[in-house]
Input
Amino acid sequence: MRAIDHYAWTNRWRDRHPAEKLLPAGGLLVLTLLLPPLTTGPLVLVGTALATVGGAGVPLRAFLAMLAAPAAFLLAGAPFLAMSISFADGFDLHFPAEGARLALSTTVRALAAVSCLTFLTLTTPLVDWVPLLRRAGIPASVIELILLMYRLIFVFAERALTGRRAQAARLGYARFDRGVRSAGLLAGNLFQRALAQARRLEIGLAARGYTGELRVLRPEQPLSWPRLAAGAALVGLIGLLGGLLARGWP
Amino acid sequence: MTGSLLAARGLEYTYSGGIVALRDLDLSVGRGRKLAILGPNGSGKTTLLLHLNGTLRPTRGEILIDGRPARYDRRAINHWRRRVGLVLQEPDDQLFAATVEQDVSFGPLNLGISESATRERVREALEALRISHLAGRATHTLSFGQKKRVAIAGVLAMRPELLVLDEPTAGLDPHGVTHLLGALQQLHEAGTTLVFSTHDVELAYAWADEVALFHDGAVLVQGETTAVLGDGEALRRARLRPPLLLEVAQALPEKDGDGAPGVPPRSREALLTWLRNRFCQSGAGSVNRCDEPAPGHCARRAAD
Output
C-alpha cells in the first residue's frame, strides 16, 4: 500500500486533472466489457501499461506487482471455470473445449479490467478524487470521513509498526503464545491511543476555527482539452483495432 | 497589568478526575513580547496554554483579553481564536488534510475569506516558515520537523495577533531549531506576540524577552529574562538549573581595571566574544590562551 501511495503522489501525471486519467481508464474498461476479450484484452493491457509506465513514469515492476495479486486469484479460479461436472450417471468431471475458452476469455477480460483500475490507482492520489466525488453528490460528511481516515491510517500504521518493533525488542514475539498476547496488547493500546488522538485532534482543529466542516482548498488542476482528446483517441484506437481483430481482420 | 493583550488572574483548573493542574495562577502577556513559560515536564504548562485560547475553561479565576474578562459563548470564542493561534506540541494532533497546502488552507477558510485570498495567505504562511517547496507534498510523507513547521504555518495563515506554541523546539535537531527560531523571530519582528512553553532553560535565556517560571501549576515569578533566570533560588524551587551561559559569566572573576560587570552574554557567539574581550585585555598570560581560537583578534586587542 505504501508503494501505491508513493507512486500516486510522485508520478509524472500527478498534477493532471483526474478527468484526464478517468476518461481513458473508464473508456478502456467499457471496451473490455463490451468487445470480445481475447483480442481486446491484450490491447487494453498494453494500452494501460504504456500509459502507466511510458506516460506517468511509474516503474513497470510496480505496475506488474500490482497486477500480480488479482492475477493470482484469477489463475487459481480458472480451472474451475474450465471444468464441467455432471451427475447424470454417477460423477463425471471433464474439461470441454469451450470450457477452456470460457476460462481463458474470463481471465483475460478480468485482468484487462483490473489493469484499467491499476492505472488510475498508481497515477492519482485519493485526494484528487474528492472534487469529483463532491460533484457526484456524495455527502460532505462522508468525504470528510474518507479524507480523515486516509490521513490517520498513516499515523496509526506508523505507531503500530514502532509498537511492534518495541515489543519484539523485548522478545514479545519470541514464542507463538507470547506473540498472540503481544499482538492483543498492541491492538488494545492502539485503540486507546486512537481515542486520545481523536480528542487532541479536536482541540487542534478547534484552535483553527473548526465549526463542523473540514473545508480545504481544492487542488489547482486545470483541465486540458488536448490531453482529454488524446485519451479519447487512445480509447478509440484500441476499440477500432479490437473490433477489427475480432472480425478476423486482416 | 494594563496594556497586556492577554492575562490570567487567579486561574485554577481541576481535571474531572480531581487532579489539580493549575492553582491560583497569574500571568500577563504583554503586546509585542516574546514570553517563555518555563517549567519542568508535567508541571501543567500545556493545561495553561489550553486556557489561553479558550479550549479549557478555568474552574476558578479568569482570563482577561485586552483587560476585559473573556466570555465563552460561541461568537466570543470564535473571535478569541481568530486573535490567538495555538500550535500543539505534536504536529500529528493538528494536521488532518492530505496535502500541505490543503491543511494550511483550513484555518483561513474557517475565517470565511475567499478562496483566492486563502491561496494568498497559504503562500505567505509557507513562505514565512520557508517551506514553500512542500506545498504540494502529502502530509504523511513529511519529516517530523517539516510537519512541525506545517502545523505552525496552518495557524499562522489565520494571522493571529498572538501565537501560542507548546514546546516548539521539542524533537527538533539543532538545525531544525535554528531554522524554526529564525522564522519565529521574523514573525515577531513583523509584530506578532509570541508565547511558548519550554523546559529548556538555555532556549528561554537565549530567546525570550520575558520568562514566567512555572512550577506545580502556578507561576512562581514572571519578569525580564535575565532577572528571572539570574534568580538561583527561584530556579531551584522550580527544579531547574540556571542557564550555562549565565553560570559561566557569573563564575568568572570580576574584571580588574574598569570593573564594570557588563551585560552577560545571551548566545554562544556572544559568550565567545565576551570571553575573548575579557581575557585578551587582562594580561600577557591570558593573551597566549586566546592565541589559539582567534589569534588575529587577540593580537589586535592586546595592541590596543
The CA atoms of residues 202 and 208 of chain A lie 10 Å apart. The radius of gyration of chain A is 24 Å.
